[in-house]
Amino acid sequence: MTTTKEAKFLDALIPIVVLICLLGAAVYLYGDSSSSGPNQIALLFATFTAALIGLKNGYTWKTLEEAMIKGITISLGAILILLMVGALIGTWLLSGTVPTLIYYGLQIINPHWFYAASCVICGIVAMSIGSSWTTAATIGVALLGVANGLDLDPVVTAGAVISGAYFGDKLSPLSETTNLAPAVAGADLFTHIHHMLWTTVPSFVIAVIIFIFMGFNADVSSDTAGIDNMVGLLQDNFNISIVNLVPLVVLLALAIRKMPAFPAISIGAVLGALWALLFQGELLASQVDVSQGQLVGYFKLVWATFFDGFAIQTGNAKMDSLLSGGGMSGMLTTTWLIMMALMFGAIMEKTGLLDVFVRSILKIAKSTGSLIASTIATCIGTNLVAADQYIAIVVPGRMFKEEYKKRGLRPVNLSRTLEDGGTITSPLIPWNTCGAYMQSVLLINPFDYALYAFFNLINPVLAVIYAYFGIKILKLEPKHLQPETQAQRSE
To answer: How would you write 267-332 as a 3-class SS string?
Structure first.
């Protein structure tokens, strides 16, 4: 029987250093295209490095390989959703759903209030459906289109979309992470949501105020010719009607009724294709190859939209870029990135290298403030290393749960901290599953929009401030304390 050696701190440090150096080199050499292959190779070599250390410590290759496969398996649900979101974006462009949202948005939203309004709208939608991913892929994509029409910064808009989407996701009882965090920590769901309000709502209010300030200080042109031109092009190329929003309404209704994401998004994509056939006849006629007959041409176009997205030629390059995209094939690079990232995270967890960092942290986390700050830092570090928000909740949650109990802290303190550090920071990291997804639908690098995702930046900082000042840090009742904790309190 093969025995394994306990990992040392240096063992854990080597793969991290390799990953940081390679990711830095990828960004330096390839810039915004680093997520299209270079980052994947960096993660692959870091995985090999961690595997070599595992072999040195007595793990067999079969054990390590099984861990990697299991790590990839965890991501399959997210990958299915990701691929179907690609199809949904394609069919919603073809059906006129996204163009209609852009059309009405250009006429309704005041440019000075746009950033704040985008944040609030995404927050309301995400809270209603419990999904930051669906919110970004639908409302977020449309808002970026409106930003282009208003000559506003798309990077700031992406930051507003992310801020709102994750605020709503975090407080929604329908959200997977909102259910996962209290389950790991041993807290009640609605007590967990109520406890999160103390850090989440102030962070969101501050973010909205910043977006209002930025909106009123933005250089917004008073010339409406550009907007009128965009509106005209939308009307010339699509049949704009309120009816086009039915696929969106159906998707939101399915999400509110708690239908799982994959079938709900699949229904939304199919409905988009059907709506294109029913209401965008002129557009389809201009796009199809009629050499095999019009009906066959329509069928081929809709089929291609599912796997290869939609492209249009309006005569305006900006509009062509805005109204083209989607398709499952466009998500394959992101899928590759997710698989590589989770392979690395799985190896780091299996070989005990992640655990080494946590044990080192607990040695210096003497106060409640430092314990909560350390938990947040661990969640962020796990997001960086394991590249998945679920792992960034589960792993630190398991590792810190007993320590919180020993120190007489209620489980909701841990569950809130897991969300403040794990859920919130995941979309800010390009190789994290959430960051990779957001880049694939918003087409903006997380390194760029992270500076403007104010809610995601402020929330962890505010949580640490609360911890050190003892604000809303709930203690266990005496009957729930462990014997050694009760003895310490009686001394």
So the answer is: HHHHHHHHHHHHHCHHHHHHHCCHHHCHHHHHHHHHHHHHHHCECCCCCCHHHHHHCCECCHHHHH
Enumerate the β-bridge partners of residue 310: 325
**Residue 10 burial class via C-beta count within 10 angstroms: exposed 0-12, middle 13-18, buried 19 and up:** exposed
Looking up tokens 């990839």, which residue turns up?
72
What's residue 157's pLDDT? Answer: 95
* Residue 217 CB neighbour total at 10 angstroms: 9
The number of helices, as runs of H, and strands, as runs of E, in the chain is 26, 0
- In whole angstroms, what is the distance from residue 201 CA to residue 204 CA? 5
Report pLDDT for 20. Answer: 82
With b for 16 or more beta-carbon neighbours within 10 A and e for fewer, the 226-249 pattern comes to: ebeebbebbeebbbbeeebebbbe
pLDDT band at 134 (very low <50, low <70, confident <90, very high): confident
Report yes or no: 261 and 134 within 8 Å, Cβ to Cβ: yes
Alpha-helix residue ranges (DSSP H) falling in 327-432: 332-350, 353-364, 368-385, 389-406, 411-418
Distance CA 324, CA 310 (A): 5
pLDDT in tens, 99-114: 888 888 777 778 888 9
What six digits make up the tokens of 358? 């946590």
Give the SS3 label for residue 75.
coil
CA contacts within 13 A on the Cβ side of 415? 27
Return the SS3 of 223.
coil
Question: What is the H or E stretch that residue 158 is in?
Answer: helix 154-171
Q: pLDDT at position 361, please? A: 75
Query: Would the pLDDT of 87 be above 50?
Result: yes
Contact 185, 144 (CB under 8 A): no
Per-residue confidence band for 454, with pLDDT thresholds at 50, 70 and 90: very high
pTM for the model stands at 0.73
Cα separation, 168 vs 170, whole angstroms: 5
Distance CA 303, CA 268 (A): 15
pLDDT average, residue stretch 285-314 = 86
pLDDT of residue 480: 52
Would you state the structure tokens that stand for residue 287, as one six-digit string?
């796009």
| DSSP at 477 | P
Would you say 152 and 115 are in contact if contact means Cβ atoms under 8 Å apart? yes
Span 54-86, pLDDT tens digits? 999 999 999 999 999 988 886 677 788 878 888
* Alpha helices per DSSP H over 186-260: 189-216, 225-237, 246-256
Which of 46, 53, 31 is CA-nearest to residue 384?
46
Using the structure block, give the residue that is written with the tokens 């350390």.
374
- The Cα 327–Cα 428 span in angstroms is 24
